[in-house]
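User: I'll paste a sequence; please echo it back and then give the predicted structure.

Assistant: Echoing your sequence first, then the prediction.
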Amino acid sequence: MSAHPSLLSNTAQRSYQGDFVAVLEQLYRERTLTPYAAGCTIPLRVNEVLIVCRGVVQLYTIQQDGSETLLGLAGPSMPIGLPLTIVDPYWATALTDVDVLPLAITEVESSPLLMAGICRHMMLRLQQSEAWLAIAGKRLVADRLRHLLLLIAQEFGQVEPCGVRVPVRLTHHQLATAIGTTRVTVTRLLKDFKNEGWLQTQQRYLIVQFEQLRESSWNRMYL
């Protein structure tokens, strides 16, 4: 019986992760990555998994009234694709410039190392999904937005002297759909957060202060 992932040592996890990265790097050399500019829709196929090699991808669905619901964000080494979801319709858009590596599902199934690597990153996607559900259950809109920004900063943030920069430019409308509120409310709350001192804007990117991240309930994810 295999050990539960939480029981694996940090050394074993790093080795495990390194093997997967090595396989991806070998595939990079042998194949041409597919690039998408920020804002472009990424085609998804029934029998294909895409590995995000660079950038951040927005995953969302469209409701009957035409509104969008943000389902999650996928960064480097994360798998995305129709074989990994039952949501319909299911769309992917490049939030930044993106490179993806397409893999046929049959190829993934025939490679234990690819399967293991994808499984590990699907676990991270599951953690993100559960975190988003926990955020959605918060009663106050301000709490939902605050925790969503902190979660995104901890997953995708880049450490700088002034704080952690969020390299993903989500519009106020996108943030509103993610937490079930209006664009006007998000705009007002962002101003409030800046007045509180833990959030600032630099060249249109959000900067989150270190102290706010340390106090966040998601801080165990920030390694």
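Residues 165 and 203 are 10 Å apart (CA to CA). Confidence is low (pLDDT under 50) at residues 1-17.
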